[in-house]
């Protein structure tokens, strides 16, 4: 019987599934040394976030075939070390989507009918039927910000209440949203037209305070706002002011900028209801986080394919090590393209050049897809599921080869949105990724750190103007390059900077004479 080690608490049903196929040992709260001892002869290990599987620990495992992480993130597993040893890593990213969606709907109903406030009043011995007059969900407009796993589950359920649904998710093509019966619009428009607004995006530098003072000022007087995603998505000060002055109707919050909240004035308001980050806290979500991975462990121990595989250990090592630098290059190009385009991609054309044209480039393509998807999705994009996710988002992929290239072995990637396209050529120099062209302008930059890409008209003094403005805001320029096609024509400036440039500085850059656009990219 295979030995299955469980080192974090998982649901008893998951344990039962595993007991059918192996000798199960449950040992929680282990020190790294104790874990090393136990993992030595284990065939499978099941963890949550409490167990850290470093390279040192993975290297000790002699028989390990599968690492199962019950839940979403796999930051506590050294994926590379597992992959190199041919150990499959699986997780259960979808386990809590329904629970969070149901809490969202619960919040919408509770806020619409003042259920928590009316309950408290009733328990105080009052019989106040006037103060808690509510509104219906029926025929109201629901604005969903972020149409990923949870946002889509909310949309399905809201439709059953007869709501009209609008959405903001720049990375979802219009047709995909249309198939779900959702009209896409920008975030400000969504705030104007919605009676209920709910957030389902990951917290990133782009989504921080996606609902700020400006957005709140556009909302209807009766608007109800729900946040079951992450605290930093809403500017809590602006929300407090609006709710205090009854500029909007109410808010329902499962998440806060600081958790647990300390002296948060929002919690003093009668038109705020909330829960302590309980979106995923259901019997079913916790059960399925465990049972989904347990079922996958069974499949892997039986030599069958599993669904939620996070890494790709089945590739021959020799092939993997040859392609690895190109995979890193195409992933970086993908990262850069999605940040530059900042909209949904309809089509990508990948051209493999030089000797690379003779290789099997499937993994290079998959890495590129990971690059364009991972900055916009919460978690769970990997080399296995990236093509399926891209297909679900209607991204058309075309591949080609050219045997000759001035850059040797190189990749050219053109990504097309509805109105704009970005093309990037990259190659390797001493085994490291280097960008050689951006939109046809020749450059020579390492795709790493923070990069500012500025489109401008080639005029004397442009470099000085940009340098001066950034200097005024204390932004240090570590490197700069200018690419132009002809003197006096449209050109680009690419700057490596030491720190993130604040949005207001980017806006000021855009307003300088002869500057056409400026974008900041975090690689
Ligand atoms: P997901 O990755 O499946 O979907 C995220 C969606 O956001 C994607 O469709 C993506 O295109 C979109 N997006 C990314 N950047 C955007 C931007 N700048 N503007 C608009 N849309 C953007 O994620 P998910 O599993 O649906 O999770 C959604 C949120 O729910 C996350 O913040 C997650 O942390 C949170 N969550 C909360 C709980 C809880 O206990 N309350 C539990 C699970 C998840």
UniProtKB/TrEMBL annotation:
It is an enzyme of class 1 (oxidoreductase). InterPro entries: ACT-like_dom_sf (IPR045865), ACT_dom (IPR002912), ASB_dom_sf (IPR029009), D-2-hydroxyacid_DH (IPR050857), D-isomer_2_OHA_DH_cat_dom (IPR006139), D-isomer_DH_CS (IPR029753), D-isomer_DH_CS1 (IPR029752), D-isomer_DH_NAD-bd (IPR006140). Pfam families: 2-Hacid_dh (PF00389), 2-Hacid_dh_C (PF02826), ACT (PF01842), PGDH_inter (PF19304). The keyword Phosphoprotein does not apply. Signal peptide: none annotated. NCBIfam families: PGDH (TIGR01327). This is D-3-phosphoglycerate dehydrogenase. It comes from Methanothermococcus okinawensis (strain DSM 14208 / JCM 11175 / IH1).
């Amino acid at each position: 019987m295979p030995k299955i080690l469980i080192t974090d608490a998982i649901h008893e049903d998951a344990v039962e599934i595993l007991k059918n196929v192996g000798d199960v040992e449950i040992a929680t709260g282990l020190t790294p040394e104790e874990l090393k001892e136990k993992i030595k002869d284990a065939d499978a290990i099941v963890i949550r976030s409490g167990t850290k599987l470093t390279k040192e620990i993975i290297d000790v495992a002699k028989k390990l075939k599968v690492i199962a992480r019950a839940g979403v993130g796999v930051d506590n597993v050294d994926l590379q070390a597992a992959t190199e040893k041919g150990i499959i890593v699986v997780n259960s990213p979808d386990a809590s989507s329904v629970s969070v969606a149901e809490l969202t709907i619960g919040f919408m109903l509770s806020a619409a009918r003042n259920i928590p406030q009316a309950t408290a009043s009733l328990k105080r011995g009052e019989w106040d039927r006037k103060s808690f007059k509510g509104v219906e969900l029926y025929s109201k407009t629901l604005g969903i910000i972020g149409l990923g796993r949870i946002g889509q589950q909310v949309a399905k359920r809201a439709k059953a209440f007869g709501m009209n649904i609008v959405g903001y998710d720049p990375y979802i093509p219009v047709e995909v949203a249309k198939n779900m019966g959702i009209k896409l619009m920008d975030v400000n428009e969504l705030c104007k037209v919605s009676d209920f607004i709910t957030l389902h995006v990951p917290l990133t530098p782009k989504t921080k305070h996606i609902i700020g003072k400006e957005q709140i000022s556009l909302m209807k007087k009766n608007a109800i706002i729900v946040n079951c995603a992450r605290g930093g998505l809403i500017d809590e000060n602006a929300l407090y002011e609006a709710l205090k002055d009854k500029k909007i109707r109410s808010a329902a919050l499962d998440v806060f900028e600081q958790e647990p909240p300390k002296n948060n004035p929002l919690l003093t308001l009668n038109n705020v209801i909330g829960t302590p980050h309980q979106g995923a806290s259901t019997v079913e979500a916790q059960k399925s986080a465990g049972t989904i991975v347990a079922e996958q462990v069974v499949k892997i121990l039986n030599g069958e394919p599993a669904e939620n595989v996070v890494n790709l250990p089945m590739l021959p090592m020799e092939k993997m090590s040859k392609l690895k630098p190109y995979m890193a290059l195409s992933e970086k190009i993908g990262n850069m393209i999605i940040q530059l385009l900042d909209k949904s991609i309809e089509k990508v054309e990948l051209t493999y050049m030089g000797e690379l044209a003779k290789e099997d480039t499937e993994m290079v393509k998959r890495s590129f897809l990971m690059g364009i998807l991972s900055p916009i999705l919460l978690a769970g994009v990997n080399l296995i599921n990236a093509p399926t996710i891209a297909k679900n988002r209607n991204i058309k992929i075309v591949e080609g080869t050219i045997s000759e290239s001035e850059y040797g072995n190189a990749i050219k990637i053109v990504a097309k949105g509805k109105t704009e396209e970005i093309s990037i050529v990259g190659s390797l120099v001493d085994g490291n990724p280097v960008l050689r062209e951006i939109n046809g302008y020749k450059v020579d930059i390492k795709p790493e750190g923070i990069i500012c890409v500025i489109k401008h008209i080639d005029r004397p003094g442009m470099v000085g103007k940009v340098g001066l403005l950034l200097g005024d805001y204390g932004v240090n320029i570590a490197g700069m390059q200018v690419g132009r096609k002809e003197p006096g024509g449209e050109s680009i400036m690419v700057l490596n900077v030491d720190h993130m440039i604040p949005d207001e500085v980017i806006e000021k850059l855009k307003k300088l004479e002869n500057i056409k656009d400026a974008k900041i990219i975090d690689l």
